């Protein structure tokens, strides 16, 4: 048996326990997922804005370029006239250059580039015949630029450059990103709370089981784990309670056995003490002393028998896997009858044996001997002078059926159930006379069960019909070799 001392008791760690570990893992996973969703949504929305802006800006630049390309003469005045007609062109800045980059028109009044050569990269690229669009988003303002070449009869006549600051759409992107961030933070908070609640609920159930194990380890076998539900932990709790119920039953049986055994051993010891004190304290003649010493010897014999039976009872309980062999029942029954015939003769009891069919069964030979011995011994002890015992062995289908019937005093109906209990005796005074300890039938019951058999009892008190014990064992046929 392993004894665990109290200081070996391990406390559940606060960090590193299941609750903490599951909580952290859960939070890291949800954080990663939410972060990815946030970045993905933000990028996608920016891309959508970029596409729509690109097409609208390039359309505007191309419209201006196309309108100018229709002019016969491209100079500052003609360009200004045309641009003034394009009323719907809402841009922050519009620049028109000739084919060498000289600015013919600039919508900006202050800081105008009119009359100078520009080196804006967009204009340079447009003068090489390309449509250009660039885009920059910064802190709620969207700055987009587009440039397009002016082609007049397939020859490059100049370039159009437009630029737009769009704070309305920029704010839209900004608020979208803020909303996404807020949703992410709120979701993460909610998930943190949920994960805390779930992991706390889970680990509190685990803690319940662990603390129950600690309580039971300290000896309180009546303690129960209270876990509701149908999940694995609840099933574990139920199984655990079943286990402690069994422990409780076997612990109670053990305590009962120890207290019964010590009580029973006390009686002959008390008699021995009483008898020896009487001898020492009184002047007695030698014959009386002999009588007393003989009584002491009887009590010592009783103690001896009882301790032998207790030993054999513990052997039945521990030796359950001992080897069985195929045993023919007739020789064992004959051996028991031989052993007990002297005692039977002493009480003028006749033992009649009728073996109709000898049967072979799978059993430990010593067990079979003990079983039959105890039953026949009881038949003698609880019989009347001149009474009879009938031992009969038959085969019924695949079973060997052994009956031990006596014509004795019988067992009262309310005791029939109890006679297989340890230390139970119907008539204690008579049992003391006969030296009975109340262990014989308990040993028989355990041995029969261990050898896959059954035992039944029928009895009547008073009319000499006595008691019949019926033993049933499955037959184990031995195949005879052909001669
Ligand atoms: P032990 O067998 O340990 O020496 P015991 O005979 O008293 O003692 P059991 O064999 O267990 O104990 O029997 C229990 C009780 O059942 C007996 O004390 C007796 O009262 C009753 N009993 C058993 N067999 C018979 C029987 N054949 N006829 C009448 N009573 C019986
Ligand atoms: Mg007995």
Structural class: alpha+beta
Largest sheet geometry: 5 strands, antiparallel
Average per-residue pLDDT, rounded, comes to 86
Proportion of residues in β-strands? 15-25%
What is the succession of H and E elements? HHEEHEEEHHHEHEEHEEHHHEE
Per the principal axes of the C-alpha atoms, what is the gross shape?
rod-shaped
Oligomer: single chain
C-alpha-based Rg, rounded: 53 Å
Q: Which stretches of 5+ consecutive residues score pLDDT under 50? A: 1-8
Q: Order of strands across the widest beta sheet?
A: 2-1-5-4-3
How many individual β-strands?
A: 12
Q: Into which percent range does the helicity of residues fall?
A: 40-55%
Bound molecules: adenosine-5'-triphosphate, magnesium ion
Gap between N and C termini:
55 Å
List the total number of helices: 11
Sum up the structure in keywords.
binds adenosine-5'-triphosphate; 18% strand; alpha+beta; binds magnesium ion; 5-stranded antiparallel β-sheet; 483 residues; disordered N terminus; 5-stranded mixed β-sheet
